[in-house]
Amino acid sequence: MASHRTRPVVREALPDDLPAIGEALRAYLSRTEEEKRAHGLSSSTGTDDALPERYRAEVEDPARALAGCRVLVAELEAAAGPGGRTSADGGEVTAGAIIGIAVLAPREGSLEIKRLWASPSVRGRGVGSALLDAAIEAAGPLPVTLTVWDWRERAIGLYRSRGFALVPGWDERPRLLCLRRSPAVGDPSPAAESPSAGSPSAGSAARITALPPIRPARPEDAAALTALHLDAWDEAYTGLIASEVLAARRADPESRAQRWRENIATTPNTVLVAEGTGERLLGFAIAGAGRDEPAGGLPERELMALYVRAEVYGTGLGHALLRAAIGDGPASLWVLEGNARAIRFYERQGFRFDGARKEDPVGAELRMVRGVG
Q1: How far apart are CA 143 and CA 141, in angstroms?
Q2: Structure-model confidence comparison of residues 224 and 300, the more confident one
Q3: Which terminus of the chain is more solvent-facing, meaning fewer CB atoms within 10 Å of its CB: N or C?
Q4: Contacts of residue 210, Cβ cutoff 8 Å, sequence gap at least 6
């Protein structure tokens, strides 16, 4: 009998994929816990209830747990076999069924692969490779980071084949390796010419996380950043800051753009932008070494600015920019007193007021910190 070989196709996840994504995460996390038990790193019993709380949330409510992440899924293209099924190692797989996922999230100026899983039933079909290549392509000019257990030699070999290298760890769990891929200038993604990397769905507005690309700012973004900054202030601070102050900010946009241009070219801080249509930007974030005296154990890193346009409030873009700028670690920030929307947002990200207050020409600012004490 002829063998019907099919190729994996990678696409953006859609809301209808959520149940399958939950099951894929269940399989991935259960397997991980089983391996950790075998290596003496977990005392769980092997049941779903034994999964750590942070993992169970991914299985039970992936839409909420993966908010701010980009999710890619792999499926097999239409099969030529009877009933639309194709043979695979260990059984048959229905063409179009999800047989792999990748979960991507911004992390301190890079794109982190949080989860990468391919069903054992399709091992050897290139599913993991297709997902990895699509993730690299999604990162664009950004580095790609990931963690992998040191016993997963096959996965490590795949990552090394795509240019990943071992770097100092940001996760201190024993036997967990941290890898990073820093693409060379002009380095095309392996997925750019690969038939396994499917195009994003035409209905991308309905995907689980239809977030715009986030990248480092460039000097040529200065005019667009000026327009974004002015608009974001009007949208966020009308009613909190005197209208004449907001109007005065628009008096000399060329000078503002020049300051942006100079700052982007010279600052040691992380400056990230979220792209919109054409040259229009939807958000930006700035982070760097804390500017306050490090008394009382203040975090070393500070989120200095975070703005998104009102049209993307509630989409997860603010969360994605925050994670890209400061990750999940300790940090501090200053927020305008009375800015209830921003305060609620930062509280959801784990920030709390520490009692510090300062007077600014536009109003009082309150300091919030995360990861201290």
Answers
A1: 7
A2: 224
A3: N
A4: 204, 315
Residues in the chain: 373
192 or 272, which is more confident:
272
Name the nearest CA neighbour of 257 among 285, 229, 287, 216: 229
Of all helices (H) and strands (E), which one includes residue 90? none
Name the residue among 330, 311, 328 with its Cα closest to residue 319. 328
Alpha-carbon span 81 to 90, nearest angstrom = 17
Please say if the pLDDT value at position 362 is more than 60: yes
- Mean pLDDT for the chain overall: 81
Residue 319 pLDDT class (50, 70, 90 cuts): confident
**pLDDT band (50, 70, 90) for residue 197:** very low
Residue with tokens 């507005």: 205
Q: Which of 123, 116, 117, 119 is nearest to 144 (CA)?
A: 116
Higher pLDDT, 194 or 87: 87
Contact 329, 368 (CB under 8 A): no
Handedness of CA 8, 274, 209, 31 (dihedral sign): positive
Residue 195 has pLDDT above 80, yes or no: no
Beta strands 270-275 and 214-216 are antiparallel
Where helices occur in 97-166 by DSSP H, the ranges are 127-139, 153-161
Q: Is the dihedral of CA 38, 39, 45, 49 positive or negative?
A: negative
Q: State pTM to two decimals.
A: 0.50
Query: What 3-state DSSP class applies to 346?
Result: helix
Please give the torsion angle defined by the CA atoms of residues 279, 282, 288 and 291, in that order, rounded to the nearest 10 degrees: 120
Asked if 277 and 221 count as a contact pair (C-beta separation under 8 A), the reply is no
Do the bridges between strand 165-166 and strand 144-149 make them parallel or antiparallel, or are there none, so unpaired? unpaired
CA distance 73 to 19: 12
- Between CA 16 and CA 211 the distance in angstroms is 18
Cα 312 from Cα 317, distance rounded (Å): 7
Q: Summarize pLDDT for 64-111 with one digit per residue, the tens.
A: 888 778 899 988 765 444 444 544 444 455 656 889 999 998 888 889
